[in-house]
Amino acid sequence: MIPESLGKISEPALISFRFRHRGDWTLWTRMVNAHFISTVWYPIIDYANIEVVVVKWVDKGTNIHEYFTKLSKRGLIYEVDLVKKIINNTYLVGFIGPYRNTVRERLILNNIPYFKSSIHNGFQDWLILAPLNRADDFKESLKSIGKLMNFKIKSIANIKDIIQIISKNNNMIDYIKLALTGNEFKTLRRAWELGYFNISNRSTLSEVSMALNKDKSTVDRQIKESIRKIIYYIMSIM
Predict the structure, then answer these.
(1) Is there a contact between 64 and 83 (Cβ–Cβ < 8 Å)?
(2) CA-to-CA distance for 211 and 203, rounded, in angstroms?
(3) Which stretches of 71-206 are assigned E, i.e. beta strand?
(4) pLDDT along the chain (238 residues), means of 10
(5) The overall pTM is greater than 0.85
(6) Which DSSP symbol is given to 202?
(7) Could you tell me which of 160, 151, 169, 161 has the C-alpha nearest to residue 15?
(8) Do residues 116 and 169 touch, judged by C-beta distance below 8 A?
(9) Helix (H) or strand (E) holding 69
(10) If 96 and its partner were Cys, which of 12, 56, 79, 178 is the partner (CB 3.0–4.6 Å)?
Protein backbone atom coordinates (compact mmCIF):
# COMPACT_ATOMS: atom_id res chain seq x y z
CA MET A 1 0.00 0.00 0.00
CA ILE A 2 1.25 3.47 -0.90
CA PRO A 3 1.25 5.91 2.04
CA GLU A 4 -1.61 8.41 1.77
CA SER A 5 0.83 11.33 1.90
CA LEU A 6 2.56 10.09 -1.26
CA GLY A 7 -0.70 10.02 -3.18
CA LYS A 8 -1.25 13.69 -2.38
CA ILE A 9 2.00 14.81 -4.04
CA SER A 10 0.99 16.41 -7.33
CA GLU A 11 4.49 16.58 -8.80
CA PRO A 12 6.67 13.93 -7.16
CA ALA A 13 10.39 13.78 -7.78
CA LEU A 14 13.06 11.21 -7.04
CA ILE A 15 16.03 12.86 -5.33
CA SER A 16 19.36 11.23 -4.59
CA PHE A 17 22.32 12.79 -2.85
CA ARG A 18 25.37 12.18 -0.70
CA PHE A 19 25.80 14.05 2.55
CA ARG A 20 28.46 14.44 5.21
CA HIS A 21 27.10 15.86 8.46
CA ARG A 22 29.29 18.23 10.46
CA GLY A 23 28.69 16.65 13.83
CA ASP A 24 26.20 13.80 14.22
CA TRP A 25 26.96 10.10 14.82
CA THR A 26 27.18 9.28 11.10
CA LEU A 27 30.37 11.31 10.77
CA TRP A 28 32.08 8.88 13.15
CA THR A 29 31.44 5.93 10.83
CA ARG A 30 34.58 7.02 8.98
CA MET A 31 36.54 5.60 11.93
CA VAL A 32 35.36 1.99 11.45
CA ASN A 33 34.97 -0.55 8.68
CA ALA A 34 31.22 -1.04 8.68
CA HIS A 35 28.12 -0.38 6.59
CA PHE A 36 24.90 0.98 8.12
CA ILE A 37 21.42 0.89 6.57
CA SER A 38 18.52 2.67 8.26
CA THR A 39 15.51 0.35 8.37
CA VAL A 40 13.06 1.98 10.81
CA TRP A 41 12.83 5.54 12.03
CA TYR A 42 10.38 7.42 14.23
CA PRO A 43 10.71 11.10 15.18
CA ILE A 44 9.75 12.64 18.48
CA ILE A 45 9.47 16.16 17.11
CA ASP A 46 11.91 18.66 18.61
CA TYR A 47 13.34 16.02 20.93
CA ALA A 48 14.80 12.83 19.46
CA ASN A 49 14.96 10.29 16.65
CA ILE A 50 14.26 6.65 17.39
CA GLU A 51 16.13 4.61 14.82
CA VAL A 52 16.88 1.00 13.91
CA VAL A 53 19.77 0.19 11.59
CA VAL A 54 21.13 -2.99 10.05
CA VAL A 55 24.92 -3.01 10.38
CA LYS A 56 27.48 -5.12 8.56
CA TRP A 57 30.40 -4.97 10.98
CA VAL A 58 33.75 -6.03 9.52
CA ASP A 59 36.01 -3.82 11.62
CA LYS A 60 38.72 -5.78 13.45
CA GLY A 61 39.99 -2.91 15.58
CA THR A 62 36.95 -2.71 17.85
CA ASN A 63 33.61 -4.44 18.31
CA ILE A 64 30.19 -3.02 17.62
CA HIS A 65 29.21 -2.84 21.32
CA GLU A 66 32.27 -0.73 22.13
CA TYR A 67 31.60 1.53 19.16
CA PHE A 68 28.04 2.41 20.14
CA THR A 69 29.07 2.81 23.78
CA LYS A 70 31.62 5.43 22.68
CA LEU A 71 28.98 7.24 20.60
CA SER A 72 26.72 7.37 23.64
CA LYS A 73 29.48 8.67 25.94
CA ARG A 74 30.27 11.43 23.46
CA GLY A 75 26.60 12.46 23.37
CA LEU A 76 26.29 11.69 19.66
CA ILE A 77 23.41 9.36 20.49
CA TYR A 78 21.32 9.42 23.65
CA GLU A 79 20.65 5.77 24.39
CA VAL A 80 21.39 2.36 22.83
CA ASP A 81 18.46 0.01 23.37
CA LEU A 82 19.39 -2.93 21.15
CA VAL A 83 22.49 -4.53 19.65
CA LYS A 84 21.39 -7.91 18.31
CA LYS A 85 23.44 -10.21 16.16
CA ILE A 86 21.40 -11.51 13.24
CA ILE A 87 23.91 -13.69 11.42
CA ASN A 88 27.70 -13.77 11.15
CA ASN A 89 28.86 -10.12 11.19
CA THR A 90 25.43 -8.57 10.62
CA TYR A 91 23.59 -6.83 13.47
CA LEU A 92 20.33 -5.08 14.25
CA VAL A 93 20.91 -1.93 16.32
CA GLY A 94 18.26 0.28 17.89
CA PHE A 95 19.02 3.63 19.49
CA ILE A 96 17.72 7.09 20.31
CA GLY A 97 19.58 10.08 18.87
CA PRO A 98 19.23 13.83 18.34
CA TYR A 99 16.44 15.30 16.25
CA ARG A 100 17.47 18.91 15.75
CA ASN A 101 19.85 19.78 12.91
CA THR A 102 19.61 16.37 11.27
CA VAL A 103 18.66 15.40 7.73
CA ARG A 104 15.50 13.81 9.09
CA GLU A 105 14.46 17.07 10.70
CA ARG A 106 14.86 18.73 7.30
CA LEU A 107 12.77 16.00 5.68
CA ILE A 108 9.89 16.64 8.07
CA LEU A 109 10.14 20.41 7.72
CA ASN A 110 9.88 20.04 3.95
CA ASN A 111 6.99 17.55 4.02
CA ILE A 112 8.97 14.68 2.47
CA PRO A 113 7.23 11.36 3.25
CA TYR A 114 9.47 8.62 1.80
CA PHE A 115 13.18 8.10 2.05
CA LYS A 116 15.92 5.56 2.65
CA SER A 117 19.50 5.99 3.70
CA SER A 118 22.76 4.13 4.13
CA ILE A 119 25.95 5.23 5.87
CA HIS A 120 29.57 4.28 5.28
CA ASN A 121 32.91 5.98 5.90
CA GLY A 122 31.27 9.14 7.25
CA PHE A 123 28.98 9.63 4.25
CA GLN A 124 25.20 9.33 4.11
CA ASP A 125 23.65 8.20 0.82
CA TRP A 126 20.00 9.17 0.47
CA LEU A 127 17.16 8.34 -1.89
CA ILE A 128 13.92 10.25 -1.34
CA LEU A 129 10.56 10.93 -2.95
CA ALA A 130 9.58 14.55 -2.51
CA PRO A 131 7.30 17.25 -3.91
CA LEU A 132 9.21 18.78 -6.79
CA ASN A 133 8.39 22.28 -5.56
CA ARG A 134 10.11 21.52 -2.22
CA ALA A 135 13.36 20.20 -3.70
CA ASP A 136 15.23 23.52 -3.79
CA ASP A 137 14.20 24.51 -0.26
CA PHE A 138 15.21 21.08 1.02
CA LYS A 139 18.56 21.34 -0.73
CA GLU A 140 19.29 24.75 0.78
CA SER A 141 18.28 23.58 4.27
CA LEU A 142 20.91 20.84 4.19
CA LYS A 143 23.78 23.21 3.51
CA SER A 144 23.61 24.67 7.01
CA ILE A 145 24.29 21.32 8.73
CA GLY A 146 26.86 19.65 6.48
CA LYS A 147 28.40 19.09 3.07
CA LEU A 148 26.03 18.21 0.23
CA MET A 149 27.25 16.26 -2.81
CA ASN A 150 25.79 14.78 -6.01
CA PHE A 151 22.30 16.23 -5.52
CA LYS A 152 20.20 14.88 -8.41
CA ILE A 153 16.50 15.35 -9.19
CA LYS A 154 14.41 13.17 -11.48
CA SER A 155 10.72 13.84 -12.15
CA ILE A 156 8.31 10.94 -11.59
CA ALA A 157 5.66 10.39 -14.25
CA ASN A 158 2.97 8.45 -12.38
CA ILE A 159 2.02 6.39 -9.34
CA LYS A 160 3.31 3.17 -10.97
CA ASP A 161 6.80 4.64 -10.99
CA ILE A 162 6.50 5.39 -7.28
CA ILE A 163 5.41 1.81 -6.55
CA GLN A 164 8.36 0.48 -8.53
CA ILE A 165 10.84 2.72 -6.73
CA ILE A 166 9.59 1.67 -3.31
CA SER A 167 9.47 -2.04 -4.18
CA LYS A 168 13.03 -1.99 -5.52
CA ASN A 169 14.36 -0.14 -2.48
CA ASN A 170 12.96 -2.05 0.48
CA ASN A 171 14.68 -3.19 3.65
CA MET A 172 14.85 -6.86 2.72
CA ILE A 173 16.82 -6.09 -0.43
CA ASP A 174 19.16 -3.87 1.58
CA TYR A 175 19.73 -6.65 4.09
CA ILE A 176 20.41 -9.22 1.36
CA LYS A 177 23.02 -6.93 -0.19
CA LEU A 178 24.76 -6.63 3.19
CA ALA A 179 24.52 -10.19 4.47
CA LEU A 180 25.01 -12.30 1.34
CA THR A 181 28.34 -12.57 -0.40
CA GLY A 182 28.50 -11.73 -4.09
CA ASN A 183 28.71 -15.43 -5.01
CA GLU A 184 25.79 -16.34 -2.76
CA PHE A 185 23.59 -13.65 -4.27
CA LYS A 186 24.54 -14.63 -7.83
CA THR A 187 23.82 -18.30 -7.14
CA LEU A 188 20.49 -17.57 -5.43
CA ARG A 189 19.33 -15.29 -8.23
CA ARG A 190 20.32 -17.77 -10.96
CA ALA A 191 18.56 -20.59 -9.13
CA TRP A 192 15.42 -18.46 -8.97
CA GLU A 193 15.64 -17.55 -12.67
CA LEU A 194 15.96 -21.22 -13.60
CA GLY A 195 12.90 -22.19 -11.54
CA TYR A 196 14.73 -24.11 -8.84
CA PHE A 197 12.26 -22.89 -6.20
CA ASN A 198 9.11 -23.64 -8.21
CA ILE A 199 6.63 -26.06 -6.63
CA SER A 200 6.16 -27.89 -9.93
CA ASN A 201 8.40 -28.26 -12.98
CA ARG A 202 11.45 -27.45 -10.88
CA SER A 203 14.90 -27.29 -12.36
CA THR A 204 17.39 -29.59 -10.67
CA LEU A 205 20.46 -28.71 -8.65
CA SER A 206 22.56 -30.21 -11.45
CA GLU A 207 20.95 -27.87 -14.00
CA VAL A 208 21.62 -24.83 -11.82
CA SER A 209 25.22 -25.98 -11.29
CA MET A 210 25.76 -26.38 -15.02
CA ALA A 211 24.34 -22.90 -15.72
CA LEU A 212 26.71 -21.40 -13.15
CA ASN A 213 29.63 -23.64 -14.10
CA LYS A 214 30.10 -24.60 -10.45
CA ASP A 215 30.28 -27.84 -8.49
CA LYS A 216 26.90 -29.11 -7.35
CA SER A 217 28.06 -29.22 -3.73
CA THR A 218 29.16 -25.58 -3.90
CA VAL A 219 25.84 -24.45 -5.36
CA ASP A 220 23.90 -26.46 -2.77
CA ARG A 221 25.91 -24.90 0.07
CA GLN A 222 25.52 -21.34 -1.27
CA ILE A 223 21.76 -21.69 -1.72
CA LYS A 224 21.28 -23.13 1.77
CA GLU A 225 23.51 -20.48 3.38
CA SER A 226 21.65 -17.68 1.57
CA ILE A 227 18.26 -18.98 2.69
CA ARG A 228 19.54 -19.41 6.25
CA LYS A 229 20.68 -15.78 6.41
CA ILE A 230 17.35 -14.50 5.05
CA ILE A 231 15.32 -16.62 7.50
CA TYR A 232 17.47 -15.46 10.43
CA TYR A 233 16.78 -11.84 9.48
CA ILE A 234 13.03 -12.36 9.15
CA MET A 235 12.80 -14.16 12.49
CA SER A 236 14.98 -11.59 14.27
CA ILE A 237 12.62 -8.71 13.46
CA MET A 238 9.33 -10.52 14.11
Answers:
(1) yes
(2) 11
(3) 79-87, 90-98, 114-120, 123-131, 146-155
(4) 52 92 94 93 91 94 94 94 90 94 92 87 93 92 96 82 70 79 91 90 91 94 90 73
(5) no
(6) P
(7) 151
(8) yes
(9) helix 64-73
(10) 79
